[in-house]
């Protein structure tokens, strides 16, 4: 099995199939728009592209 680059993520893990619909499991960045997902951390969500941060309650 070949090793991937550091931090490489499979985008297919950001989607779920429920019945006959495809559902996103992560939010898109409100600044960058659709196609750029927010990274999930323990206490926050962040965008790796623009730096946008949302803190979880």
TrEMBL record:
Family: Belongs to the eukaryotic ribosomal protein eS31 family.
Gene, per the UniProt record: rps27ae
This protein's name: Small ribosomal subunit protein eS31
Note describing how the cofactor binds: Binds 1 zinc ion per subunit.
Cofactor(s) required, per the database record: Zn(2+)
GO function terms (MF aspect): structural constituent of ribosome; zinc ion binding
Annotated keywords: Metal-binding, Ribonucleoprotein, Ribosomal protein, Zinc, Zinc-finger
GO cellular component entries: ribonucleoprotein complex; ribosome
UniProt keyword Ribonucleoprotein, yes or no: yes
Keyword Transcription: no
Subunit organization: Part of the 30S ribosomal subunit.
Amino-acid positions noted as binding Zn(2+) in the UniProt annotation, renumbered to this chain: 29, 32, 47, 50
Domain Small ribosomal subunit protein eS31: 11-53
GO biological process: translation
């Amino acid at each position: 099995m070949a090793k991937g680059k550091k931090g490489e993520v499979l985008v297919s893990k950001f989607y779920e199939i429920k019945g006959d619909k495809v559902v996103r499991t992560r939010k898109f960045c409100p600044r960058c728009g659709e196609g750029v997902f927010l990274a999930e951390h323990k206490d926050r969500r962040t965008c790796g592209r623009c730096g946008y941060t949302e803190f979880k309650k």
